[in-house]
Amino acid sequence: MVKKLEAMARNKGDGKQLAAAVRESAQQIWLAGLGAFSKAQEEGGKVFEALVKEGMGIQRRTRAMTEERIGEVTGRMSKAAGDITRQATQSWDKLEQVFEDRVSRALARLGVPTSKDIQSLMKRVEALNESVQTLGGAAPARARKAAVARKPDAAKAPAKKAARRARAAS
User: Which whole-number Å values give the CA distances from 70 to 62, 65, 82, in the listed order?
Assistant: First the structure.
């Protein structure tokens, strides 16, 4: 159509023919537009539904992929948190051991005995006490402890004797 119009424009003598051709061309453009509009109305619903279905499919795939990625990231973060916790615990244990070692060395330099040393000495003192008591003819230390535990009853004895004397005098 465009070629016809160009040819007519060159011939300039046919002004009426050019106007008719322009009208005819405009008419065809108008009809093509109406046809396109009609097609769009008929198939617009179908195209819209197809686009909605495609969008839903994309959304499902995206959601599944996102959940998968979140799962991977969560796993990595949990592993990293476990590693950090383990390292912190190990560091704390090492620090505690270093502190204990230094305190032990400082106490040893000052000549402070350990609890094991004191317990060992207590056992030796008890053994020596028992052997001294045995050699001296006195009761062992355990027997004396039992007697000391009975002393409060012995303190009541003079009071009982005084009460008997008072009764006998009356």
Answer: 12, 9, 18
- The structure tokens 């990231």 sit at 73
Give the model's pLDDT for residue 37. 79
Half-sphere CA count of 16, side-chain side, radius 13 A? 0
Residues 39-96: tens digit of each pLDDT? 777 777 777 788 888 889 999 999 999 999 999 999 999 999 999 999 999 999 999 9
